[in-house]
Amino acid sequence: MNPGKLFIIAGIVLLIIGLLWTFIGRLPGDFSFRKGNVSFHFPIMTSIVVSIILTLVFFIMGRFR
């Protein structure tokens, strides 16, 4: 695949993810813990969604190769 097309596809995917992240925010499966001055955020559901999206993108890119 041409590197130019790869960068265009990657940019479009990142734009879509950024827009979704802005409008959706935290997903229900994301855990946040606070105790005193310490806070811990574990975005498990966000990680799963991003993983699925990237898997689909790489699968589609592999088909057009």
From TrEMBL:
- Keyword field: Membrane, Transmembrane, Transmembrane helix
Query: The organism sits in which domain of life?
Result: Bacteria
Q: What protein does this entry describe? A: DUF2905 domain-containing protein
Species assigned in the record: Virgibacillus tibetensis
Q: Keyword Transmembrane on this protein?
A: yes
The protein's matches in InterPro entries, at most eight in alphabetical order, are given as: DUF2905
This protein's record includes keyword Heme: no
Q: Where are the transmembrane segments?
A: 7-24, 44-62
